Every structure is written in C-alpha cells, then in structure tokens.
Amino acid sequence: MRVVSGIQPTGNLHLGNYLGAIRNWVAMQDAMDDGSECLFFLADLHAISQPHDPAELRAGTLEMTAALVACGIDPERSILFNQAQIPAHGELQWLLAGTARMGWLNRMTQWKDKAGKNREGQSVALFSYPVLQAADVLLYQATHVPVGEDQKQHLELARDIAQKFNTDFASEEAPVFTLPDAIIPPQAARIMSLRNGNAKMSKSDPSEMSRINLADDADTVMKKVKKAKTDPEPLPSEKAGLEGRAEALNLVTIYSALTGDNVEQVLRDHGGQGFGNFKPVLGEALVEHLRPINERFVALKDDREELDAILARGAAQARERGLPTLDAAYKALGLVRG
Ligand code: TYM
Prior knowledge:
The chain has helices at about 15-30, 45, 55-70, 85-95, 100-105, 110-115, 125-140, 150-170, 220-225, 245-260, 265-270, 275-300, 305-330, and strands at about 1-5, 35-40, 80, 145, 180-185. The protein contains 13 helices and 5 strands. By secondary structure, it is mostly helical. α4 (about 85-95) runs parallel beside α13 (about 305-330), α7 (about 125-140) crosses α8 (about 150-170) and α9 packs antiparallel against α12. A 3-stranded parallel sheet has the order 1-2-3. A two-stranded parallel ribbon has the order 4-5. The structure holds ligand 1. Ligand 1 binds next to β1, α1 and α7.
C-alpha cells in the first residue's frame, strides 16, 4: 500500500479539510503495516495557480506543516514534505501534459467553478492544475489517495492519464504507472459552510464565520457555531426529516463525525431539540475535539528550525521514492537523458 495525498498551504486548516481528509490520513498512517508507506505533502506548487502573496505562501507552508503534525501526522512514520522541494513533480507534470487531453481538463468542475465566466483571464497553471495533481500521485505509485468528495474528479482524471500513458508508451505486463484509488470518507466527505448549507466549507470563502479553523480558540468556535445559519424547526427524529434542510443536515453531519455516532443515532438522541439546545452541545464537542490539536499547533507553529528540519527530511525521502518512476517515464517517452 502506498498512500499519497496533499493539501494547499493557503489559508487556515479548517474543519472541512480535517473531517474530509486529514483525519483519514492519520487513520491510514496509524493502520500502516510493514512494507506500506504514507506520503503527505503541502501542495505549494498548486497554490501559485491563483493570485497569491509570496510571503504569505512561505509562512502558510510552515504553518500548515505544524497544523498537520498537530492533527497527528507523525513525520517519523509518514513522509511529510512540500512539493517545491521535489523538482520531479514539475518534471512529471510536463511529461504527462503530452498525454492529458484539453477536453478532459475542460470538463473539470473545479476549473469551471474557479474560472467562472473569465476563462481567458485565468493562468495556464489553473487550467493544467489537475495534471500536476496526477503527477503528485503517479510519481510515487500511489495505490490509495484519501481525499474529500471535491477531489474525486481530479483523481479520476489521474487514472485516465495513467491508463492512457500505460497504453500508449508501456505495456500491460510492465506499466509505468499504478492506477490510484480515491478513498473518500462515508460521512463528512463534504462539510458545508456555516453560512450557506449549499456551499462547501472553503478557505476561499471571504467570511471567516463560514468555517471553523483548527487554530480557532474555544470562544471563537462557540461564537461561530452559535451564529451558524439554521432554520426555525427543531431537529427531526429521523434522517428523512433533514431533506431540504441543508444547514441542519450539515450541523448534524459535523456532530456525527465528531462523536462517531451515525446520523440516525444523533437524531434519536437529539430529535425534537431546537438549535438553541443543539448548538451548544455541538460547540462543546468541537472545542473538546480541537483542544489537543490546538495546543500542539500553538507549541509547534513558531519552531522554525523544527519545521524546516521536518520538511527537509521528508523531501529527501520523497525524492528517493519518486526517482525510479520519473526515470521510467522519461525512458518510455524516448527521451535521452545521458
Ligand atoms: P485542498 O487544499 O482544497 O483540500 C485538502 C483536502 O481537504 C478536503 N476538503 C474537504 N473535505 C470535506 N469537506 C470540505 N468542505 C472540504 N474542503 C476541502 C479536500 O477534498 C482535500 O482532500 N488539489 C488539492 C490538493 C492536492 C492533492 C494532490 C490532493 C494537490 N495534489 C494529490 C490529493 C492528491 C486541493 O486543493 O485540496
């Protein structure tokens, strides 16, 4: 098993990232047996596909490293690094760009959402973003890629690219790339904004009140939950009663993901309660869950030496893991490299 996944180091790590992806990374790391490996990275190269501030990106990369360690990623057991230290990601992206099709990229919903009506004004990097993402996982022969629902389409594209490359330039008996499987959590695959139950919780939402950040203190968490948009009805006792109530469903989903009780159980316990009762219960559960993460994060986030050392060690290990596949891809394409 080779587990590979990444996160953009822009903005804060929020509850959507944590419940949708990072928690799964930690679970997979903790379940690893001998011969299996996890590689987790900061997708700093992806972050330059949209307007950004260089100083913020540098600081954000270190801060997100601290956040991942605070969440339970152990750099002694997992390989933790940032893309920019591994030139092979960019190199493989170019090699795969000969295989990826314009039509495939044009169909990516994230491209359509982010570009909106102004496609002509977007960077080439935003358009070819999923090819770099394919390179990220194919470089390491990833078998499993734990992500939230919104990355599923990008992973399908990575499989399509790998499949076509193998067919065009290798053979079934000796493929260059492994086809990776997306691992999406059964619940919490898509945590929604606290201000709009139909929009995903996201770092790019201008409203801080739309998301819980893992670095938020207890008062902030309680305040955000209290102000979360809801409807006037009490919670139903059965799941069917949540239909058409996106905000209520989102809060119940978050509570369910935190406590480990499924949605049916949560509604059995809290059905009939109004949000005036349920919100403080949810807020407390969040504060309890986030407290140890918060403490570890605060202790590590300014330890520049330690964070640099973690990333340097991870980069050295990742470089070594990626080399054979990069060489095989060059060779398969007929490129002479001395
Ligand atoms: P990013 O940085 O937007 O998000 C990191 C992870 O968090 C998940 N996620 C969510 N899950 C549930 N609910 C939400 N509201 C929510 N918001 C985010 C994402 O699905 C993701 O798993 N392109 C990727 C980073 C990337 C990558 C990769 C991922 C680059 N290369 C290779 C996997 C494999 C991104 O921008 O994720």
